[in-house]
Structure formats: C-alpha cells, structure tokens
Amino acid sequence: MKNNLILAIDTSCDDTSVAVTSGPYVLGNVIASQTELHRQYGGVFPTVAKQAHKENIAPTVTSALRRAGITWDEITAIAVTQGPGLAPALEVGIRAAQTYASEHNLPLIPVNHLEGHLLSVLARPKPRDANVQKLSSDLPVVKNALGILVSGGNTLFVQVKQIGKYEVLGQTLDDAAGECLDKIGRMLNLGYPAGPVIEQFAKLGNPKAIPFPLPLTMTKTYDLSFSGLKTSARNLLEDNGVLQPLKKQEVYDFCASIQFAVFRHITYKLNKLLVDQKFSQIWLGGGVAANATLRRMIRETIQANSDRVANPKLLTPYSKKLCMDNAAMIGVAARTKRIQKGGGEQIGRRPRWGLEEI
Ligand code: KG4
Q: For the whole model, what pTM was predicted?
C-alpha cells in the first residue's frame, strides 16, 4: 500500500464528523455539530440525531476531503465508529462507510469510539508544507500507560497494556462526569451542553462556597459515582420540589463548587490508583478533558505521585476539537488495526461495545 490515507467517519452521538488522517497526522477534521438542534431537549434526542446525520454526512465527507487537499483516488481505507454510542446514530455512519467502500473499492476498518478517545492524545497536526506521501505513518510503542477518559457518556480509568489491549481499572457506576455537569447546568438554566459554561462561570466563583460531599471514599475500588453529587445539587437548588433561581454571584459560586467536587472525586480516585500502581505515562481524553481546571487538578495529582509515573507529563490531545467527539481520533485508532480486504460487509452497530472486548 503506497500510503495510509484513511477517511474516518464518526456518528456515535450528536456530531457528524469526517476526517482524513495519515498515521498520527490529521490532514482534515470536520465536525458538523447538532448542538443547536438538541438544545431544546436539554440532551441528545436519538431520532433527531439520526436524521441530522443523514443530511450532514455527504457534505461533511466532501469538506473533509477538501480541507485535507486529498481526492478519493488517494484514500486507502475507510474507518468508521462501530460503537459504543446511540444505535440509530451509529447506523448512519456505518451505512455511509459501507456505501463509500463499495463505490471506491476500499477496505473498511471498524473502530471503537472509546479507543478513539484514548488514542486521541497520539494525534499530531499535519506539519506545515509536509508532503503527505512522505509522512511517516508509525505510531509510538506504548506499554502500561494509564488512560483517563472523561466525557459526556463515559468516565473511566483504563490501563493501556499496549495499543489495542486495554483493562478498565475503574469506571462510573452511574452518570458520566460530563453528563453530571450537563444535568446540573440544566437545573441552573445554563443551556446544553453546560460543561463549557460551568467552566467559564466557575472562574468567577468560589470553589469552596458549597462543601459538596466526596463520593465513594469508603470503597476500595477505583470506580466513580456522580449521581449523589447531582442529587445534592438538586436538594440545594429546590424548595418544595421547585427549582429556585439564584443571584448571579451565587450561580458562579455554585458552578465553581460543583465543578471542583466533580473533579476532586476524579482526582481522589486517581491518587488512590497512583499510590497502588505504577504507570509509564498518563493520558487524558474526552470532552471534559478540554477543561483547564480538570487538567490542572490531574497534573497536581500526578506531581504528588511523580515517583510512580515514569513520564509524569500529562498527555492531552493537541487541540480542544480533538477532546470532543471527532473522526480524527477514529482515523488515528484505525491506523493500529490490520486492514482486512472485504471485511466491511460484517460490520454492524455495537452500541455497548466495551474497551476490553476489542
Ligand atoms: O466527548 P464528548 O464530545 O461527547 C461524548 O460524551 O462522547 O463530550 C461531551 C461532554 C459534555 O458533557 C460537555 O458538557 C463536556 O463534554 N464538556 C466540558 C467542557 N467541554 C465539553 N465539560 C467541562 N468543561 C469543558 N470545557
């Protein structure tokens, strides 16, 4: 194969994304956001997402190819998110990938969305003026890294034994961290998704104003739970079952306090994990990984355990766009898979596909 130019598609949730990648290099990464469509529901509405994916997919493919400066003739494989995610949404991406694969006689590579988020830290921007055909398509050799994935659908600690071999060390037992922030943001009328708004408001507030509880301190596991924090928030905001409006500064203090509580829960469990186990390096991915306070709190926790981590520098995706759902991470993860000619026909959506089943 001359060069590994992958066209990657992700329709796992509410964003239609298409990217062109070469090894770790991102040549084009286009995201057609559906946020405005779902805002009125305060969350993602699956059938609305499916319809929007259907409308967005072809133009998004065209603009990803244009952005990358690549034609179909140069593409060597198509990667697509097979799961986990919303079944009706996944279906659109998989169908499109199958159609393009048969039209252009290309192999299909099914990719796990969570593996994409994990490996997003390995993505690199295309070097300026680089000749695409001459870029190295190798990815680094990784052994015993710790992946922290914090998004709207998942919150987990994963041991990356090597690329493609994962063990989940701990995960949320209920809501994901981003989901918890979004739900509390809804109580505060902050719109959807609320995570980025909470980050901005938190800068103007006092994180110690409200002493939220620290969950699961008595358990020995590295599992997490955010539903108690959500209930505490509701109890504080409600009077006789009715949400009470707060004054401006009170909203800022509430945001700062709940954000601190959510992240302190993650770093408390991370600290426990680092006391118990050694790792070569630590990766952070997922939508909430865009949050500067979370990054700082995780860096501080790693610093406090720097003798337990060979490379104590926290690895994060090179841009915020790579933290959220995107197809570039799917293309990068696909690079680690063996390409099987004609494998595409067997691909079906896998809404609950876990990392350990890869
Ligand atoms: O990874 P992602 O785009 O979608 C999946 O869940 O797969 O993550 C979206 C989540 C939402 O819950 C959103 O509120 C949260 O990431 N998020 C943030 C920030 N940016 C996005 N949460 C806190 N601070 C942010 N800056």
A: 0.95
